[in-house]
Each structure stands twice: as C-alpha cells, then as structure tokens.
Design a protein that fits this description.
The chain contains 3 helices and 3 strands. Helix 1 (2-15) crosses helix 2. With 114 residues, the protein is of the alpha+beta class. It is elongated and about 50 Å long.
Length: 114
C-alpha cells in the first residue's frame, strides 16, 4: 500500500513538474491511516491521511489532513458476483483525487513558493 500511495504522489508531482531531480528544497511526509475498499453494500473505497511538507531545516511548512471516500451502488454486483477490477478502479480514484486535492491546494503551493 505504501508503494501505491508513494507512486501516486510521485506521478502527481511529475505531472505538475514539481519533482526535483537533484537536492530537493522540501520533503513530503505522508502518514496513511486508512486506505481500503470493500464490496459489502455496493462498492466503497476510503482514504484518510496526513501530508506534511518540511523545508531543508526540518521545519514543517505545510500540513493537511484529508479523508475521502468514493462509492458506487451496484448492489447486485457484490461478493462473489463482483469484479475486483471495479474495486481497484474505485481505490485508484479515491487515491488520485486525494493526491490532486493536496498537490493543488493553494496553501501547499504557497508554502513551497510555486
């Protein structure tokens, strides 16, 4: 899970041309409390995390808690009738949406000077 979340942040930073190729002026720390998906009643994916950004001295310049979920209500397509690929899509959707929300946050952009 940590690799999936890290990859999503790396791809998001690359897409925004914000990933340093040399010594970075900032470090991003992500504390992931929850990232799961289930097919109990419909399909739901949930994420709950904190992102912190620290400058070179270690001082935290940005911190944001984010919790989000996404669901589809295909009630007859759960359990043994469900597609694991549909569940994977929901999990990726909630992760990508969370990363976009954090990296596009005006407070984050101001903290790192972009």
């Amino acid at each position: 899970v940590k690799d999936e979340v890290a990859d999503a942040f790396i791809q998001g930073l690359q897409a925004r041309d914000m990933l340093a190729s040399t010594a970075a002026p900032f470090r991003i720390f992500v504390a992931l409390r929850k990232f799961d998906a289930d097919m109990i009643i419909g399909r739901t994916a949930r994420i709950d995390l904190t992102m912190q950004v620290a400058d070179q001295s270690g001082r935290v310049v940005f911190r944001r808690d984010v919790a989000d979920s996404v669901s589809d209500m295909k009630f007859l397509q759960t359990g043994v009738f469900a597609s694991i690929d549909d569940l994977r899509v929901l999990a990726k959707t909630v992760l990508d949406r969370t990363v976009d929300k954090l990296l596009d946050d005006p407070s984050f952009r101001a903290a790192i000077g972009t």
